[in-house]
From TrEMBL:
Organism name: Marinobacterium lacunae
Protein name: Metapyrocatechase
EC number(s) stated in the UniProt entry for this protein: 1.13.11.2
Upper taxonomic lineage: Bacteria, Pseudomonadati, Pseudomonadota, Gammaproteobacteria, Oceanospirillales
Enzyme class: oxidoreductase
Domain of life: Bacteria
UniProt similarity note: Belongs to the extradiol ring-cleavage dioxygenase family.
Pfam families: Diox-like_N, Glyoxalase
PROSITE patterns: EXTRADIOL_DIOXYGENAS, VOC
Cofactor dependency: Fe(2+)
VOC domain span: 7-122, 150-269
Keyword Metal-binding among UniProt keywords: yes
Subunit text: Homotetramer.
Known catalytic reactions: catechol + O2 = (2Z,4E)-2-hydroxy-6-oxohexa-2,4-dienoate + H(+)
Length: 307
């Protein structure tokens, strides 16, 4: 049952050198730098996104994810979900409007996997970069690098997948699109959506709480993904794997690292989900093919390098 959560809104990442990070996300990935606040945080967005920002970079001694946020339909939905989160048994933190530049009030909670999430209803909407919303051209002419279109999802590692699934299903209204189960029938990976996308957030079972695997950004075509691979080599950027195809979601993908060690993905394609679709199930022994369809095996970095 949908609860009014519309889509991913933003992710705040910790980076260890802000100048290097901005060069990576702006010049290589092609996100648009839109603001910098009094705390020194830098704000960016994909060129098709209408909200002011979707990525916030915060300088820190350690890399990783501070929080991921979802945008809800309106303030009434935000207030209702606040009550349901408390009823679920979570501590909910109120964050005032303006703490993030151009964003309305947010509520923050920690999922059973140890990851911090936020919900918000209002954010400044300057519209799509360079083309606007009235008689728009096909694309802006001054895009850089990979020309990332939008922040799409995060993959997160943590221990309590069952309670996190119950939270996202029963309170936030997400659907389970795809899952990986072990021989005992235990779910060891879950791909959840609040939209028609293949997933808006995903979790893989891991003994430690609160680990960050990657933030993903959407590109338009397979040719764009191949071009991203060229740019990764041209800039001597650390690569994880790809270009290749996923079995899960059928997206076409490449993984690489920012200068602080946070993993990024750019991808195109992917399945479309409708609420009457049954979840797709993969057996754990087929996980290699499920993640990297062509190689049919997981590399060690994909499993072990987390921030």
């Amino acid at each position: 049952m949908k609860k009014g959560v519309m889509r991913p809104g933003h992710v705040q990442l910790r980076v260890m050198d802000m100048d290097e990070a901005v060069a990576h996300y702006r010049d290589l990935m092609g996100l648009i730098e839109v603001d910098k606040d009094a705390q020194g945080r830098v704000y960016l967005k994909g060129w098709t996104e209408v909200d002011k920002f979707s990525v916030v970079l915060r300088e820190s001694d350690t890399p990783g994810m501070d929080f991921m946020a979802f945008k809800v339909l309106n303030e009434s939905v935000l207030e209702s979900l606040h009550g349901e989160l408390v009823e679920f048994g979570l501590d909910v933190e109120q964050i005032p409007a303006g703490e993030l530049s151009g964003c309305g009030r947010r509520i923050r909670f920690v999922a059973p996997t140890g990851h911090s999430f936020e919900l918000f209803a209002e954010k400044e909407q300057p519209g799509r970069y360079g083309i606007g919303n009235h008689n728009p051209e096909a694309w802006p002419r001054d895009l850089r690098g990979m020309k990332a279109q939008r922040f799409d999802h995060c993959l997160l590692y943590g221990d309590d997948l069952d309670e996190t699934y119950r939270l996202f299903r029963d309170v936030l209204g997400f659907d389970l699109c795809e899952q990986v189960v072990d021989p005992e029938g235990t779910r060891v990976a879950q791909f959840l959506t609040c939209s028609m996308k293949a997933h808006d957030v995903a979790f893989i079972k891991h003994p430690e709480k609160g680990r960050f695997h990657h933030a993903s950004f959407f590109l338009e075509t397979w040719e764009d993904v191949l071009r991203a691979g060229d740019l990764i080599s041209m800039t001597d950027t650390s690569i994880d794997i790809g270009p290749t195809r996923h079995g899960i979601t059928h997206g076409q993908t490449i993984y690489f690292f920012d200068p602080s060690g946070n993993r990024n993905e750019v991808f195109c394609g992917g399945d479309v989900f409708y609420p009457d679709h049954e979840p797709i199930t993969w057996d754990a022994e087929k996980l290699g093919k499920a993640i990297f369809y062509h190689d049919r095996q997981l590399n060690e970095r994909f499993l072990t390098v987390l921030t």
